[in-house]
Amino acid sequence: MLIKKPNRILPSEITDEAVYKERRRFLGMAALGTATLTAGGLMLPALNALAKPVERKSFPDLKKGPFGTDEELNSFEEITTYNNFYEFGFGKSDPARYAHMLTTHPWSVSIEGEAEITGRFNLEDILKPHTLEERIYRLRCVEAWSMVIPWVGFSLADLIKRFKPTSKAKFVEFTTLYNPEEMPGQKSGILEWPYVEGLRMDEAMHPLTLLAVGLYGKEMPNQNGAPLRLVVPWKYGFKSIKSVVKIRFTETQPQTTWNLSAPGEYGFYANVNPNVDHPRWSQGRERRIGDFLKRNTETFNGYADEVAHLYSGMDLKKHF
Ligand code: MTE
């Protein structure tokens, strides 16, 4: 892991307890020489090889998108070696080691639910009408670390308009690929698979909400959610679902993976809020990956001017 300074937080402090225990169990079994784990375990021996370097296409002449930040960017190494992608394991370095197993070409996305136009579309057709741009966003993880990432993508709002949601469409639900053969973490019962996330329609239509296809000017590395992922910068990172295969317009609030797994810990809204702590740790401060000292966490991750109006009149302690 190429983090400049040692991470002084104990994994047990920052990782969901159940996930932490499952990881210890896996490591313990591996240490005992029982690494041939299948269902209920994580890694197959064949996966132990490190990922080969992958040639990723460049997106030339990207224009800068709105809402940029002039903060120092995290390095490509940091962004691509310290990840959460539980489909590939529970350790931060697991996605970089194992996500090369995922086949991302060809890829299709199914558009479903309350919309005039629905169906399954090749990724190329999904992307064709959109002009890609670079957007530098802060990503604040619920585990109290953050990064600054130069994404490549386009506004989710522009995609949504093309499919003409009906007046019944009040929410948008997103689903990750389900393929336990290529995503061995899905053989573990620690979460319900496939990973599902959701947004209220006005959040999905907000100009900050991004569908990302790359970072640092090139196609998305698999560990960051290739070929298509969501980025919602004012919400905790778990809302930013990776490797999306389904977008569904719904009348009712979607059942989302983390909310289902621990409703008292992970709310549907998941707006970054230093005044509402996680039951087991503070959300008041965060560690920017690469920094030694912690910094204060900002309300809505620093995007309050743009998004606070979406929640006016709501009790954000209740709707956390
Ligand atoms: N999407 C899927 N499908 N599976 C995951 O485990 N983890 C989430 C989110 N999207 C996750 C996911 C969490 S907890 C975070 S913090 C971000 O991805 C991390 O994104 P990054 O690895 O690109 O920094």
Main attributes of the structure:
disordered N terminus; five-stranded mixed sheet; 320 residues; Sulfite Oxidase, Chain A, domain 2; binds ligand MTE
Folded structure, characterized:
This protein has nine helices and 13 strands. The protein has 320 residues and is α+β, with helices and mostly antiparallel strands. The chain has one domain (11-311): Oxidoreductase, molybdopterin-binding domain (Sulfite Oxidase, Chain A, domain 2, Alpha-Beta Complex), CATH 3.90.420. Strands 1, 4, 5, 8, 9, 10, 12 and 13 form an eight-stranded mixed sheet that branches. A five-stranded mixed sheet has the order 3-2-11-6-7.
Kindly name the structural category. Answer: alpha+beta
Name the CATH superfamily assignment: Oxidoreductase, molybdopterin-binding domain
The parts where pLDDT drops under 50 for at least 5 residues are 1-49
State the oligomer.
single chain
* CATH fold assignment: Sulfite Oxidase, Chain A, domain 2
Bulk shape: globular
**What is the string of SSEs from the N terminus onward?**
HHEHHEEHEEHEEHEEEEHEEH
Number of domain units: 1
CATH architecture: Alpha-Beta Complex
Overall pLDDT: 88
C-alpha Rg (nearest Å): 19 Å
Taking the sheet with the most strands, its summary is: 8 strands, mixed
Secondary structure: helix percent: 10-25%
* Beta strand count: 13
Query: Which distinct ligands sit in these coordinates?
Result: ligand MTE
Query: Strand content of the residues, in percent?
Result: 15-25%
Put simply, the count of helices is: 9
